[in-house]
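2024-03-11 09:14:02 INFO worker-7 job=invfold-0412 stage=load source=structure_tokens
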């Protein structure tokens, strides 16, 4: 079949496509590019959850692509980041940064997050129009992760631009150029922090590198870039998608507007309903396996779709309608297993604080354009809005 994930209609609303694919088979072979390339796409919830933890599905992209001809020029520290590794390397690298994103560590960041949210919302008109992606969904997570890593304020807009370019689907030269720019920038920032130490997470990682053998220099740069990019991209999409879901479902909006304290209890449902990650990062089969009822040969890419799995009616009845009373804690928006997003506690804190403040300060918040006029990012990996025009009142 032709690539079902490349058409403009898919970017606008992927869920009917996911439903059609899942109904045919929750795991199936699909075309995923020119030249006859294909992958196995996982759209069922049970199958996706199993795939996330199956050790026969490797994330070692370097091993998969070794010896294969390529015209790409992705920077090595981007291509070989922690997400593209298997145990024991993955466990070693993840352990070095996990403590910065624990529930306790995030709780200590809450006053800073609240300050940034208040500052950003202060800049919105009390009765006018604004783009919530540009005004809130982008700057909040960028500011927080840059503050955590010690990225100077003057560099943050450029960092965001490079990060956006890394997800420019169908534009390999743009992606490759951005990978070199952000990797070179991070190498320079590491050198600057060696010369003038501070109390940032990046400085902590530099200390680990310089005082032991747990981290190579390339791994240090790679880990720092990954934290920088992953630390805000998904949260930006989460904030935009969640706000849109609230605005499109008045009953849900009224539920949280009458008691903003309820926001925290509906975040999992909002993540389930419109996952900020449409398709998880690359995996491939190291040996033949059966997933669901589908036989997958060795040596082929396997794409897991959290966006599709979270709308599987076998797991979530009436999945196309957000339900404030649903227990959606088992959603796969953050992945599952050893590669589950380590920044999930930070993303949840940022979303809870931002959305609670938004519905409190702007009780008459509403969409300023028809939903079909909204523009979505041109990437099938991420699911996120380019802009979200609203009336602020």
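2024-03-11 09:14:09 INFO worker-7 stage=emit residues=393
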């Amino acid at each position: 079949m032709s690539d079902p994930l490349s058409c403009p209609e898919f970017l606008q609303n992927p869920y009917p496509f996911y439903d059609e694919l899942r109904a045919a088979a929750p795991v199936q072979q699909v075309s995923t590019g020119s030249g006859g390339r294909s992958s196995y796409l996982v759209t069922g919830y049970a199958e996706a959850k199993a795939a996330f933890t199956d050790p026969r599905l490797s994330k070692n992209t370097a091993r998969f692509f070794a010896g294969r001809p390529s015209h790409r020029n992705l920077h090595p520290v981007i291509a070989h980041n922690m997400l593209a590794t298997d145990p024991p390397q993955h466990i070693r690298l993840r352990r070095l940064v996990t403590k910065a994103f624990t529930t306790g560590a995030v709780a200590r960041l809450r006053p800073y997050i609240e300050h940034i949210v208040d500052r950003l919302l202060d800049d919105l008109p009390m009765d006018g129009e604004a783009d919530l992606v540009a005004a809130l969904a982008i700057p909040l997570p960028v500011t927080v992760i840059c503050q955590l890593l010690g990225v100077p304020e003057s560099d943050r807009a450029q960092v965001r631009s490079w990060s956006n370019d890394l997800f420019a689907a169908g534009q390999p030269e743009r992606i490759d150029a951005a990978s070199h720019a952000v990797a070179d920038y991070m190498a320079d920032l590491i050198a600057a922090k060696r010369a003038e130490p501070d109390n940032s997470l990046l400085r902590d990682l530099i200390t680990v590198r310089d005082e032991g053998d747990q981290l190579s220099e390339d791994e240090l740069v790679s880990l720092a870039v990954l934290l920088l990019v992953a630390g805000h991209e998904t949260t930006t999409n989460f904030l935009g998608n969640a706000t849109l879901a609230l605005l499109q479902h008045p009953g849900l909006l009224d539920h949280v507007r009458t008691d903003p304290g309820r926001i925290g209890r509906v975040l999992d449902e909002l993540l389930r309903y419109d996952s900020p990650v449409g398709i998880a990062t690359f995996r491939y089969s190291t040996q033949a396996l059966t997933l669901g009822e589908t036989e997958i040969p060795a040596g082929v890419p396997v794409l897991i779709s959290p966006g599709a799995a979270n709308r599987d009616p076998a797991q979530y009845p009436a999945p196309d309608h957000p339900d404030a009373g649903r227990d959606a804690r088992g959603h796969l928006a953050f992945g599952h297993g050893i590669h589950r997003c380590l920044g999930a506690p930070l993303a949840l804190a940022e979303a809870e604080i931002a959305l609670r403040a938004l519905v409190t300060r702007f009780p008459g918040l509403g969409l300023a354009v028809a939903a079909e006029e909204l523009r979505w990012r041109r990437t099938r990996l991420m699911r996120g809005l380019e802009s979200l025009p609203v009336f602020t009142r």
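2024-03-11 09:14:09 INFO worker-7 stage=report msg="Residues 217-248 form the longest helix (32 residues)."
2024-03-11 09:14:10 INFO worker-7 job finished
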